[in-house]
Specification:
With about 300 residues, the protein is an alpha/beta fold. The chain contains nine helices and ten strands.
């Protein structure tokens, strides 16, 4: 059904007709069925979209109004096509469609205030997709108020399992919960990675030795404390614990090389939390080859 705004608690899928958008819709459909929530298909149009008309013989000089009118028609057709496909696969699923005019980042952020999850692809259809669509995912991740899942086109590599990066404090409970839920629902093993930097390992690195995975009893005890409740809540999940020293973003990227999903926390605001969690999430979103989920840390409040 068409809707003026997304229903509360909906799973939102950003739709643009690209291969990664198709993957995002598939993921969102499965998540909506799993959690028994409505699905909302969202497409955003902005004046910037008129620059995409040149490859098909239309110049922006022909008039922004004409360009947007044509794009609006195409967008409505795209949403109707995707909705029909979803209905054929999951007729029991409540599906809404939403077409908004504006910056895609702001459109998704506005819809996210009523959503339980936003799912989107990492690459769009336009000639400027690497710049524009990449910035959409990163921009949304900096301010989104619910979990954001970003899908990428498959690269042919064999991947299995979920990776969640934590800092071994209570701040990590929201991404940890998300990762356990996903691992349990899909029967996947879960790796919990605590990457950190301390002066002992910095000194080792200064003398030419490599950073990497370590066995630090104190850090393992901290990790065990935050995992204790999760193990009881999700006894079916096989959990692997890992410690790594050095730059957190590089440690996460290395550990995510063979995973199908990596889960990160992000902090909206200012100060050290924003610099640490925000910068790591941005790096992983821009460079990871697997699906990335960014979970606001405030969800534990």
């Amino acid at each position: 059904m068409k809707t003026a705004e997304a229903p509360l608690g909906t799973i939102v899928a950003a739709v643009d007709g690209s291969p990664s958008s198709d993957l995002a819709v598939d993921f969102a459909v499965h998540q909506a069925l799993l959690t028994r929530r409505p699905l909302t298909l969202v497409h955003a149009l902005s004046p910037m979209d008129t620059v995409w008309l040149a490859p098909v013989g239309m110049s922006p000089s022909m008039g922004t109004g004409v360009g947007l009118e044509a794009l609006e028609t195409q967008a409505k057709e795209l949403l109707a096509e995707v909705r029909a496909d979803v209905a054929s696969r999951a007729p029991e699923l409540e599906v809404h469609v939403l077409l908004r005019f504006g910056d895609p980042r702001q459109v998704l952020l506005d819809v996210a205030t009523r959503a339980s999850m936003v799912v989107m692809g990492s690459r769009g259809r336009g000639p400027v997709r690497s710049l524009l669509l990449g910035s959409v995912a990163v921009g949304v991740s900096h301010h989104v108020t619910c979990p954001l899942v970003v899908l990428r086109p498959t690269d042919g590599a064999e991947r299995s399992g979920v990776l969640v990066a934590v800092d071994a404090t209570e701040r990590s409970m929201a991404p940890l919960e998300f990762a356990f839920q996903h691992a349990s629902a899909y029967g996947l093993p879960l790796t919990v990675l605590h990457a950190y930097w301390d002066v002992r390992h910095a000194a080792v690195h200064a003398h030419g030795e490599q950073e990497g995975v370590h066995d630090d009893e104190d850090e393992l005890l901290l990790l065990a404390e935050i995992l204790a409740g999760m193990a009881e809540k999700y006894p079916d999940v096989v959990v692997h614990r890992a410690l790594a020293t050095g730059m957190v973003d590089l440690a996460v990227m290395d550990a995510a090389a063979d995973k199908e999903l990596v889960v990160l926390g992000t902090h909206h605001g200012s100060g050290a939390g924003e610099m640490l969690f925000g910068s790591v999430a941005t790096t992983v979103l821009e460079h990871a080859s697997c699906t990335v989920a960014v979970v606001p840390l405030h969800l534990t409040d």
